[in-house]
Design a protein that fits this description.
The protein is an alpha+beta fold. About 20% of the residues lie in helices and about 30% in strands.
Length: about 800
């Protein structure tokens, strides 16, 4: 095994990376124009020399670039040695010399030195095929190299040592220092957002369980951190393609995201001749709210009044403006496309002119100017709506805390850990708000006084008529309510849910046109409410009218209406009009887990693990934290929906069977979907919450392996049924077979093994042997030890 581990390094030593170098002798020079404008590496992969600045042919940078690709991607560029490390630009008459005393000196057309690496006594220079330009001593040792003084990029074989920094560019075509630093320190890798040109603001870090020694981009294309105890901690986790067939680089991009890229060396119809993202690390982690004394303000990852949006599937991070805001240039943030609320509006005027657009899982923690505790959500919105200084309200459900924020918003944090609902104040129409009349004009122009007086008197008369009408209408409604019971009370629902009428839902769904899914109890349609927020909804229409179906509808409304949890789809309302039975849910942007889990694109391992934990927590809530225990009875990937942040939410309680608090089991007909059904369904025995535990065990294995539980067409017989195969792999100590080809999961094999053990406990044939969902959650979290699961003689399986 040891020789195999040494093979990459032996290959490195025997490769052109080390051996092939052309010595650049003392006295050699380069000029920005002419035949001597660059020095090539031995195999021509890299070049060191002058590159014109895009859009400015009279200015040049001293750079290292990929020479054999069409766009000549720059991997290094010269900067001054001062703390701010400003960019070095020269004009066409400049000259770079390797002097007779072994120094490298860049002089402008007047002969003034503008840059040198502060090294003398070099015997020669060389442009290596690793991309490292070096000044070497007579014995071949490196006295100075571009690898030791990186700009925004690192390359294969490059090693960063503590206190080494990467500086992002301001934009892709401007090599000036941008807003972000990546700083390797003894205790981790730190990212900083900088309010250029001054103080840095800490964004997030990868703290380490030991002293950091190096950040390594090794010859196989892996990027990892080494600790002083020899531990290697992987940074990027994408699938690495052959370094013989691809160029590789990792860059701190202008948006503050650290991305690893690859580029095919040879043209082929199979490959796109362009840089593609292998993996990335984005600055969208939650940072705790700081005290005023600790606050340092910068524009953040994407500039003012914006936030970063991470596309998990495509490994991309984009900057997004707030609704009805637009970008100011490429890196300055966003501005409102409307006239902000005037402080001359009264409360009624503000309510009439403005509304809120809702977002979630994002915050700007440093922009609060007022906080309210223990107030309801609607009051939080009203406080912001009537406050002319408030541009955004942020509400935290867990403790009913409300924050009011004013512009500009800075230093956004994004992710599932940011448990906030955000309300962005925008005008009710997209047009500009009408300008307020200038009070001075009223004083100077009598016609305005007369017109204003007339308007005032007319408005007073109209207001009185409206008030009388409201009083009469209110009296009529009070009498009517007493005489005619409401839809809710007539159906004995008695829940704080909105009772929609059928026409309203028909209009919202455009006549029930766009189908989101079909289940045993009805069809689900996409819709959009005609409210101030334009809320998207999912409408489940119950088509069958049998007595059992109506009973099922009532049960579903009663149970879901009382549930509220991050990992459960929320019921917004219902329609119980005539023969129509409809349920109105919150809309889940990313659809069901089914389409991601078994599609062409594999979700990254960390996300799959997080989804498994989310489903477990949702089931824990249903089983143990509701006032009335709920057994779902149909847990499967199709019933696990994903919101815009890929948070798992359990849906479809239409097959749930309720248990009163003094009951422990119930007998019912077989429910659920084959392939996920627990063995006790076939034995006419009592059904408990352990049927959901069994189904969760199947889903957990599907999440681990990214395949269906049953794949009848698979060639290898022992792999057709996932539960059987997993049990065999676990007993043989080869859990790695289950995640073959998934580099990220293989790197985290201890967690994979832990999750497999939990799944095998969930799949025990005897329900009493299965853990509760509380225990499952604790074992997945690592908070509880996991004993070796018994080797069940067989896993009862119903084929689809």
């Amino acid at each position: 095994m040891a020789p195999l581990l040494l093979l990459p390094f032996l290959l490195l030593l025997s490769s052109p990376y080390v051996q092939a170098q052309q010595k650049i002798t003392l006295g050699s020079s380069l000029t920005p124009q002419g035949p001597n404008s660059f020095w090539l590496s031995s195999y021509g992969d890299f070049a060191f020399g002058f590159r014109p600045i895009e859009g400015n042919t009279s200015s040049y940078l001293l750079t290292v670039w990929f020479n054999k690709i069409s766009d000549k991607t720059v991997a290094w560029y010269a900067r001054t040695a001062d703390p701010d490390s400003s960019l070095v630009q020269v004009s066409s008459g400049s000259c770079l010399q390797l002097t007779s005393n072994g120094a490298l000196s860049l002089q402008d057309p007047t002969g003034t030195e503008v840059w040198n690496p502060q090294v003398v006594g070099a015997a020669y220079a060389a442009m290596l095929d690793t991309g490292n330009f070096i000044l070497a001593a007579a014995d071949g040792s490196t006295k100075w190299g571009t690898f030791d003084n990186p700009a925004d990029t690192i390359l294969l074989t490059q090693v960063l040592t503590p206190e080494t920094k990467l500086h992002s560019r301001i934009i892709a075509t401007d090599y000036s220092n941008g807003r972000f630093h990546l700083n390797l320190q003894n205790n981790g890798v730190f990212f900083y957002a900088v309010a250029v040109p001054s103080s840095p603001q800490h964004e997030y870090n990868w703290s380490m369980p030991g002293n950091t020694t190096n950040l390594v981009f090794n010859v196989t294309g892996m990027i990892y951190i080494t600790l002083d105890n020899g531990t290697q901690i992987k940074i990027t986790s994408g699938k690495i393609s052959s370094t013989a067939d691809y160029y590789h680089r990792a860059t701190l991009d202008p948006d503050g995201v650290f991305r690893q890229y690859m580029y095919p060396k040879k043209f082929s119809n199979l490959y796109t001749q362009a840089w593609s993202v292998v993996d990335f690390k984005a600055t969208n982690k939650y940072v705790p709210r700081r005290s005023a004394a600790e606050t340092q303000v910068s524009s953040g990852t994407c500039g003012f009044n914006s936030y970063s949006n991470v596309d998990v599937l495509n490994n991309q991070t984009t900057c997004v403006c707030l609704p009805q805001y637009s970008f100011i240039g490429e890196s300055k943030g966003c501005k409102p496309d409307f006239q902000p609320q005037s402080c001359d509006f009264d409360e009624a005027g503000a309510t009439e002119q403005f509304k809120f657009v809702t977002m979630s899982n994002v915050d700007w923690p440093q922009c609060d100017y007022e906080q309210h505790d223990n107030i309801p959500n609607d009051q939080c919105q009203q406080l912001c709506l009537t406050d002319c200084l408030c541009a955004v309200a942020v509400f935290r459900d867990s403790d009913n805390t409300c924050w009011k924020k004013k512009m500009p918003l800075t230093n956004n944090v994004v992710g599932d850990t940011v448990q906030r609902t955000v309300y962005i104040k925008v005008p009710k129409n997209n047009s500009q708000q009408p300008e307020l009349l200038d009070s001075n004009r009223w004083k100077k122009d009598k016609k305005h006084w007369i017109l204003g007086s007339s308007l005032f008197l007319g408005s007073s008369v109209l207001l009185n008529i409206v008030l009388i009408s409201v009083i009469l209408f209110g009296t009529y409604c009070t009498i009517t309510i007493k005489e005619i019971p409401s839809v809710q009370s007539s159906n004995n629902v008695g829940l704080p849910l909105k009772a929609f009428n059928y026409a309203e839902l028909e209009k919202a769904t455009s006549g029930f046109q766009e189908v989101l899914g079909t289940g045993a109890s009805g069809i689900v349609y996409k819709g959009q409410l005609q409210d101030d927020l334009g809320t998207y909804i999912a409408v489940k229409k119950i088509d069958k009218l049998e007595h059992e179906t109506e009973k099922e509808f009532t049960v579903e409304v009663q149970t879901i209406g009382r549930t509220h949890h991050k990992n459960l789809v929320r019921l917004l309302g219902f329609c119980n009009e005539g023969k129509e039975r409809l349920l109105v849910y919150e809309f889940m942007t990313n659809g069901s887990l089914n389409q991601f889990l078994f599609g062409d694109v594999r979700l990254e391992w960390n996300l799959r693990a997080q989804l498994a934990l989310g489903v477990a927590r949702g089931l824990l809530y249903l089983h143990e934290e509701c006032s009335t225990q709920i057994i779902h009875c149909d847990i499967k990937p199709q019933n696990i929906l994903l919101d815009g942040n890929f948070t798992a939410k359990i849906s479809d309680f239409g097959l749930a069977k309720l248990l009163r608090t003094n009951q422990t089991q119930t007998i019912t007909g077989i429910r659920g979907t084959r392939g996920y059904v627990a063995p006790e369904w076939f034995k006419s025995t009592g059904i408990t919450a352990k049927v959901d535990v069994y189904s969760f065990g199947v889903i957990l294995l599907e999440l681990i392996c990214c395949r269906r539980n049953v794949e009848s067409e698979m060639a290898e017989e022992d792999k057709k049924i996932l539960t059987y195969w997993t049990n065999d792999c676990y007993r043989c100590g080869r859990v790695d077979f289950l995640v073959d080809g998934d580099d990220e999961a293989i790197f985290d094999l201890k967690k994979v093994e832990r999750y497999v053990a939990v799944a095998l406990w969930c799949l025990q044939e005897d329900p009493t042997m299965r853990p509760t969902m509380l225990k499952v959650t604790q074992m997945l979290d690592g908070a509880a030890a996991i004993p070796t699961p018994p080797d069940s003689s067989s896993f009862v399986q119903s084929l689809p």
